[in-house]
Structures are given as structure tokens and as C-alpha cells.
């Protein structure tokens, strides 16, 4: 079932996010709970999850960003898209992305920008198949850790 995350989803999301990066930063439960509360209280932050038999198998986070350009319509940024390795290629991640798009449209966003950490051709094809265009924008990242 695709839905927005609830307070009780934190542990399942943390387990899933452990698969996101091979060198994930260590987190303390206390710190994660504090950040989780901040996310849940912010109406512009959305974490979309796909739950199967009580287990979070796919998730992405999205933030709605107010903008004074583009007719003062906001845009959405999607990050941390991940599907459990044993549930990939079954449509669970695509369902999360469709729900994120629905939320962005509901918030009158003019576009969604998805940030991908992988440059693997299969991952790029997956995002393009999901409606994202990699030639429309260029993103640059600067690590602050």
C-alpha cells in the first residue's frame, strides 16, 4: 500500500535506507527520532512509502520548495528513492514516485526534480521510464561532511 509515512514507520525506513548507500553515515536512534519529528511536523516535507505485509519495501522523500519565479509556483525535490533489493522490479518504487507526483500536483508544483546518486544505466533508464528527463537539468552536489 502506497501512502505517506507515519510516525511509527521510522524503524522500517531506517532499515530500508541502510540499502541506499554502501557507506551510509551512522545514525543514533535518538537523533533519527528528533529529525523524524521535524520531518513529520513540516507540511512541505513528505516521505512516501510502499508497505507490503507490514514491511516498508520502498520509499522516497520529497520537499516542496516555495519559489518566487515561475509564477510563484513551488517545485518539488525528490531524494532518497530506494526499494528493498528483494522487492525491486515489481513496481513498488514506481508506485512511490507516482504518489510523490500526485502530492506535487496537489501542491501546485510546476515541476519535480529527482536527485539520483547512481549513474548505473539501468537506474537511469528506470527514472526516464518513470517520466524524468536527465537532459532537462544539470545538478551539482558539494558534500558538506
From TrEMBL:
Matches recorded under InterPro entries: Acyl_CoA_acyltransferase (IPR016181), GNAT_dom (IPR000182), GNPNAT1-like (IPR039143)
Record's keyword terms, sorted: Acyltransferase, Transferase
Record has Acyltransferase as a keyword: yes
CDD domains reported for this sequence: NAT_SF
Key word Lipid biosynthesis present: no
E.C. designation(s): 2.3.1.-
Domain N-acetyltransferase, first and last residues per copy: 1-145
Tree of life domain: Bacteria
Leader sequence residues: none
Pfam families in the cross-refs: Acetyltransf_1 (PF00583)
GO molecular function: glucosamine 6-phosphate N-acetyltransferase activity
Protein name, per record: GNAT family N-acetyltransferase
Naturally occurring in which organism (per UniProt): Caproicibacterium argilliputei
